[in-house]
Amino acid sequence: MADPAAPAAAARPTKIIAGADPFGAPLKDALVTHLREALHIEVEDLGTGPYYSIAADVGRRISSSGGPETRGLVACGTGCGVSMFANKFPGAFAATCLSVADAVNARSINNSNILAVSAVYTPPEPAVEILRAWLDTPFKSPCPANGDRPWSDDIQEFLDRALVETPKIGVPASEPDESASCAICCLVKRRELNPIDMIPGGSMKILRETPTSAIVRFKAGSVEPAHHHTFGHDLVVLEGKKSVWNLTKKERYDLVVGDYLFTPAGDVHRVQYHEETEFFIKWDGHWDMFFDEDLETAKKAIAEESSSSSLP
């Protein structure tokens, strides 16, 4: 006779959104094949990219999917990098699982909806077992973390409460009703800019938070080495002239006064300032900047392009 207190069997998702970096691609491909051919689950394979951007793509899609029918699968060398960046979106709960026990715990306790796997530590056959355990384990089911026993009533209440409260973490507070507030509260009258320590020649003044906007100025001849952010950003050139190389898309943009450019999250880009240049920039999220080359490498690359373009 079935135990009436036992949780119902998990309903497998009907769709998986998958992605990996080059280190995790072979393992991801093996798991995608298993999902499609053995389990007959629809898979949208986003392919391969840098661990931070491909994981962000999966996390963003799961965040906006709106239901348990769709889950995510990400892979890299360790499984940690993709988990970190998939988790940057509200309602995306990625868990790095190196064992079946990890997978069962992540589903039972955390209601994980993105599985992160390690190509370095997990061969394909054990990874399939991890995947199947993660797919088949219901939320609040008995798990190794509790000695495979059913959760007590108070713990089940806590887990239910967490299911409601955790998606709210990371969601920006609602914008205030600006029509009901004094316009002068958003007025910035002084334009003194503070130096940007990490890039010589740059200075910035934050104008507003949520969304964050700023005025940025660079001296003529300044160079921003190739870098990326975990957020997309919009900018409008107010004065001067600059060139932006989007190395991810292999495109160059020469910007002058009045020009607008949007750079997506994760896109690696390098910048050169031909004149003293000032621009307005707006981004979502907390400021971060991850360098993909040093300043001397950036200057050398720009000089080589300039030299080759001047050849007859």
From TrEMBL:
This is ChrR-like cupin domain-containing protein. GO terms for biological process: carbohydrate metabolic process. One of its GO terms (molecular function) is isomerase activity. Pfam families: Cupin_7 (PF12973), LacAB_rpiB (PF02502). It comes from the Eukaryota. Residues 196-281 form the ChrR-like cupin domain.
